[in-house]
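Lesson 9: reading folded outputs for more than one chain in a single document. The general rule is that every protein is listed as its sequence immediately followed by its structure tokens, and records are never interleaved. Here is the first one.
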Amino acid sequence: MRLSTSNGDACRQILERLREEREVLKQRRKQGELLTWCKVDFADAADAGPPILLGHLSADAASGQYRLESEEGSLVVCLSETEAKRAVNETVAVLEYSGVLEWFDGGGVKGAAWERFYVIPKRVKTLFRKSNQEKVDVKEKEGEDWWTVLNCSGPSLSDTGSSLRVSLLARRSNDVTAKRFNFPVSELFGHRSLPAGSKFKLQAGAVRNKVAEVDVSVTAEGRRDMDAVSAYELGELGSAPEGRSLITVEAEVAERWFEQNKFNDSFDRSKSKSCTLDQDIGILPRSTVCHVKLKQKGNFGDPPAGDTVSFYLSNTSRNNTLGVLMPLGMVVGSVLRLGNVRQVVSKKGHPYLVPTDLTNVSYLGDGTAGTWTKVPPREALLGDLYRSR
């Protein structure tokens, strides 16, 4: 690859290649098969692919996405948890990556169609680190209102549809009672979400709950909270709690498609609101569900039908019709961590997973390349935290 002098030119090359791939896939698809995404890998070859991407990695509060910023504009990137911790807020060179193009036809809802493009870095090199990298310890002073995060969602649509928010459960030190909070992503000091075990301080005297400070380092107290969370693999779901208990599952995406009018017979359409955010960030209307077939991570090839588990990504609120934000990286071959989901068993005895308003979908890596970060299973959290809201 050659060095980039313009990320804008590189983006145009990647997008052109993805659209070519989409046309090829359309010619090859089976009758009745609906295409919703395509992906092209750009390796570090001497005379192939677009140039290296350069820029400053940051978290964008408006879209809830990571972006590679340069003088020519910004590029959306899907980062694994490992890369995000290492490279966000740094100046980097993205040496190898995959380009992904996703699209949605609107599902019959006027103005709901969108197309989005992003890259998934495979090899990132930090070029310039920030000055003053030494961590400043946050000291809790007497009288300050500090809370420890137990569970936190990923970015989701606010009730007004004009911004993104996160929902979380947290408790004060030495307090067993959890409290529910909703914070705009723009108030999280550059974080898209707050990891379990981290802390935040509420602003004193504010009319509503507002974050005054964030400490994402995990204390010993926070570590105990994290150790209570289980990362189940698909083969372990038989021992995972069902019903309203929250669980975390790690698996690889085997298939993905959109379905209409599923689980949507209970909300009041008279309360429908318009979302004012850009649809291109990946908003599915309330009438659409993203059906994801999951398989055991690390298993190559197509799994037998009985070895997959369905995850239905949809809006979890009964009272609004704004829809749901599609996480980046939810394409075939990706290994995902589905945090704070519920396991339900159908009448036929088949388990499936549904989101809650605390669900956080994290991209871990490419399962076909074995780049995902393995987290060993931990002791299950049997307490029903979801009921404490």
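And here is the second record, again sequence then tokens.
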Amino acid sequence: MRVEVGVSENWRNVEAVKVDGEEVKFVTVADTDLGLVVRFVADADGKFIVEGDEVKKETLYGNVEIVFKGGA
């Protein structure tokens, strides 16, 4: 299953995204079939890191779990 901010209808129902059991914040794409998550990168203070005129993103790989609100 793939959910993507602004694209997938069910994104609003996502409660959490986990990679290898650890919750991941600032996720923009989560794909359980491909085992990847794309997220915005934040510094130690929780502020997004900007490179040029874009927020920096990173891709994480592993066992991806998407947890939906209410177990949906």
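What the second record shows: The chain has a mean pLDDT of 93.
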